[in-house]
């Protein structure tokens, strides 16, 4: 109610407010700032005044600010802090304040014949000749303007709070350009405890994460078990000053991986005093309690300074059974002839593993022995549009409800940054950021589906003389067997450490330099309880009694044990703790020099040069008992890998003022690789153009090339294996059962290995747009962007390999059309060699034992779209201060070609299997008056294809709101409501795959939190 009223008042105030009053006067605030270093005072002023302020460190170094106490407008307070410092400030029409050198003797500049008109300066605003410069992501050259040739998105620490985000990743996940599908907590998979970011839908590994401009270490465990990426979930929010995002190619500045964008997390510096924040909350539907404690502080002396931040974060594990809607019986697409059927809990098929095989009914009373975990159910299926009754088995409604919806987390983080001034022109600095995380999750319980063979894995069927038939057993373990749900939880332990030291200084009055040495290290450990294959055999199946003439093994199922629950002690006797361990690291040395090369009539030519050397590596060690070829644990495989690469680079960048209104940017970079891959070197470049026909209008454009060296795991993977059900396409086509292939799917083992012969991916991107300061406090941006990627590395899927093998063997595709490659072609020789089969009795075609896959440079991707935004700041005496932000991104075109043998899919954007959002919107409105403040934030997610393949879902809105009160001079309270309307996901009446909505949406629902802040004097 308060937030809505604030927004309404803001709109009414906007109609009647005078522009000069809006920008130059502003509402007065009470300030109580102690005498302290000027940089710390300005940072506190910006935070308390809700202003965006750029403070160049070299300008405020060794300058002090007087104490400030009383009620002032922002401009009045700023002028008092800067009085006598030799500094002044400039305010852009969009409201950004830049600290500048006070005008002295202006350096003469040649005036053009027809100078562009300038906006009238505000009455209280000085107009210095020389503006100070700052470095912004996307360029190493410092500049006075916020906007450059490429669009940059900035999220400040204050904005993180205004929008209600408890973590850095929560904020990044709302970015309009983060529209690509990723593994989430619901999808589980190989990414374990990580939070990947997918900019422009080009994949998580193609955006670069920087911490204070330095490359962060890769997440040690590969994404989907295949490729490396960076984790955006291990950054302590309490240490963040701001986050800068450049969405587009930037390899000419930052090197490899900057294909779809760069995210630079800038940590806090020049902090003075201490502040404690305590935030605790829960969800309105129950569970997921959260606790966040932050301590941020800093001290300065005559020639030294230190800033520190410490954070403790705890999040309760949330299970599916804590949500009423997390239920198999909520299926919106139910065939009335079948009804909703429970998952298989305990049953035996007669004849084969085929879904058409009848069930052998368990003895009466068997299902009830599990105390409500199992229910007796008569299973049915539809075959040729007829209902086929399969028989009775024990089903379960509960297994899906044991899945975690949100992991349990316990995290500690610390950050320290210190400086020492040796002289006016030389400063030493050091930075340490450390993070430790303990996490619990549950992806489901183990199942027993047949006897195990070391080195091969489990087999789903065998001959049992008790039934005089081949049988296919299936039994799901439950909390009754293990002694509680938590006994199946997986445990993660992670820690990361980023250490950097450096020297920086200036010379010849117009040159700055920075020498940096850094190391980033990431350690990962994962443990989970799993059964041992041979012990499962001993307990349930006994020794192999022989082999049938058709090759099927003979076992005698222990029915007494099969038809009763295990005790926790019995489960412990046949299980063990599987352990995975991984580590990644990157060491970097860099030297950067920036300055002004010489003067042109329109101004100085800016230049930046960088030389860099780095070594990068990883080591992944899965439990030796899950390795391909070993496979001693039941139904569990893993991957190993490890390797290093060295890289050397040199780059240069120019900023050239062509006229008073036109500026060009040029950059080039050479990267040299020393590793076992086919990548030798890479050359990238970019060019940008800025035209300012008036002071309030910027027309810009940029073109960039990019590259991505093969991820280390693509190269050094020793093989990752997995079991999964796939269709034997050769058998299906030979039997004439295509295209449906009902009954021709079974479990297969797939193996993927690295390839050192991979080449680099290459890309190019360009953008063009405008930035227009429409009026005082109002700014509009609009940019068109286009990104192309060639030679992208993809892994051949098991399904595509089996379809290719079948086409080469039969000359046909699944749809009956002729296959495009001849049996003796190079393609067919390669693809058929990837499939290993073994004899299956008297059947004409052998059974698939293993499918091997490897990464290849084939894929082509192109995405293009529009980003637009509006920023409106309004300051009034009567109604308070307001801020309105709206950002929108819409993908106009998305094309892809997965394999060189395929045609280019020109309409991939609208393909029913593409789960990237076509559009996103984020909007915010905030209000502050006196001691009160409130904010409203919205994220709009575009539609996705319906699960049934026809039509699209509705759009999805998430609203966050908060209200705050400064209760004393030093203490404040804030109340947050995230997902205000408890909106979970769009309806999709065609989705019959549990949980009946895409995992891009969160089932957590509305969350409430209370935050207490206290600033120590």
Task: Give a written overview of the molecule.
Strand 14 and strand 15 form a beta hairpin. By secondary structure, the protein is mainly β. 45% of the residues are buried. The chain is 11% helix and 46% strand. The chain is globular and about 100 Å long. The protein starts with a helix and ends with a strand. The model is unreliable at 1-25 and 104-134 (pLDDT under 50). It contains 16 helices and 51 strands. Helix 3 (38-48) packs antiparallel against helix 5 (74-82). The protein has a 22-stranded antiparallel beta barrel. Strands 17, 18, 19, 20, 24, 27 and 28 form a 7-stranded antiparallel beta sheet that branches. The protein has a 5-stranded mixed beta sheet with strand order 8-11-12-9-10.
How many whole angstroms does the radius of gyration measure?
Answer: 31 Å
Poorly predicted regions: 1-25, 104-134
**What is the overall number of helices?**
16
Describe the main β-sheet briefly: 22 strands, antiparallel, barrel
Report the helical percentage: 10-25%
Quick tags:
about 1000 residues; single chain; mainly beta; 22-stranded antiparallel β-barrel; 16 helices; 51 strands; globular
Explain the layout of strands and helices:
Layout lengths: L1 H15 L2 H7 L3 E5 L2 E2 H11 L4 E2 L2 H4 L3 E2 L2 E5 L1 H9 L4 E5 L5 E5 L50 E5 H6 L5 H5 L34 E5 L2 E2 L24 E7 L4 H4 L6 E7 L5 E11 L6 E11 L3 E12 L2 E2 L23 E8 L8 E2 L14 E9 L2 E11 L7 E3 L1 E16 L2 E16 L5 E2 L3 E2 L3 E2 L3 E3 L4 E8 L2 H4 L7 E18 L3 E21 L1 H9 L4 E2 L5 E2 L4 H4 L5 H6 L1 E26 L2 E19 L17 E19 L4 E13 L6 E14 L2 E12 L3 H5 E11 L1 H6 L10 E8 L8 E15 L2 E18 L2 H13 L15 H7 L2 E4 L8 E7 L1 E22 L3 E18 L21 E11 L2 E10 L14 E11 L4 E8 L28 E10 L1
Parallel strand pairs: 3-7, 9-12, 40-44
Antiparallel strand pairs: 1-5, 2-4, 6-7, 8-11, 9-10, 11-12, 13-14, 13-51, 14-15, 15-22, 16-21, 17-18, 17-20, 17-28, 19-20, 22-23, 23-29, 24-28, 25-26, 27-28, 29-30, 30-33, 31-32, 33-34, 34-35, 35-36, 35-39, 36-37, 37-38, 38-41, 39-40, 41-42, 42-45, 43-44, 45-46, 46-47, 47-48, 48-49, 49-50, 50-51
Helix pairs in contact: 3-5
